Amino acid sequence: MVLSLCSLASGSTGNATLLKTDDTCLLFDAGQSMKYIISCFDELGFDPEALDGIFISHEHSDHIRGAGALSRKFGIPIWCNNGTWLAAKTKLGNIEYHKEFKTEQLVILNDLEILPIPISHDAAEPVCFRIRQLNTSLQAGIITDIGILTPPVKHYLYNSNILMLESNYDLDMLVNGTYPENVKLFILGELGHLSNNEAGESIIELMGKNTEHVLLSHISQDNNTPELAFKTVAKIINRLGISETILGLTYHNRMSRVFDLSK
Fold first, then answer.
1. What share of the chain in percent tops pLDDT 90?
2. How far is CA 238 from CA 77, 194, 211, 234, in A?
3. What is d(CA 262, CA 2) in angstroms, rounded to the nearest whole number?
4. Quick one: which H or E segment has residue 98?
5. Which CATH number belongs to the domain containing residue 235 in this structure?
6. Which residues, including other chains, have CB under 8 Å from residue 246's CB and lie 6 or more apart?
């Protein structure tokens, strides 16, 4: 039995993550264009009609841009909580297949158990996701936008086999950069994003003996680089003897490699 995860894109220009098993295929967020997402599917040899659902974390355009079009073209259900649905439905357009999940209540789809977890971010009812494969107990966590690591996130995502975690900005680049001061303060705040340093400290809190891979996500194009994010986080986790070989990168304009977990 295998659970595989691939970031199709991650960043302020769009986020989408494909997770699949032998029995179930899900897309977590669809913030790139349908054309881009389908091109990724083609590269992976994946049929979009095999998707069992699109799970939306929150209503920002970099998480829903292609969701409505994909849903209409392929008859894919869009899953989100009520707060996100009310905030996103006019942007999504006419959706025939909409399903509601409740935050912190399990959704069972075939061999997968999906738990939406409340997070700290500037949206109506934002969540991250824990996904477990029922017949193997393999667990993935997907966090692309989060201001602080809250107790529910620590509780539910500790010891995930694979974790996608935001590493949005380098503090010096942000503070000395060209963003307006109010935007800088928002990014730094509890409803904003995690810095590279905060991501490193968060990984230490979330790692357990089963953690095999950590993907750094939502890396800013203006206030960070993938190389700097990797270097900063690696230095922090190395302090506790954790090897940087667990770290992987996501990109705003291309796919990550495919991460396969087996049990």
1. 98
2. 42, 19, 15, 6
3. 4
4. strand 98-100
5. 3.60.15.10
6. 207, 211, 212, 213, 214, 237
What is the count of structural domains for the chain? 1
Residues 140-191 have pLDDT tens digits of 999 999 999 999 999 999 999 999 999 999 999 999 999 999 999 999 999 9
User: Where on the phi/psi map is residue 38: left (φ > 0), alpha (ψ -120 to 50), or beta?
Assistant: alpha
Q: Which domain range does residue 130 map to?
A: 2-262
pTM (two decimals): 0.97
Which of 236, 232, 177 lies closest to 205 in space, CA to CA?
Answer: 236
pLDDT in tens, 185-233: 999 999 999 999 999 999 999 999 999 999 999 999 999 999 999 999 9
Please spell the DSSP secondary structure of 105-161, one letter per residue: S-EEETTEEEEEEE--SSSSS-EEEEEEETTT--EEEE-S--SS--HHHHHHHTT-S
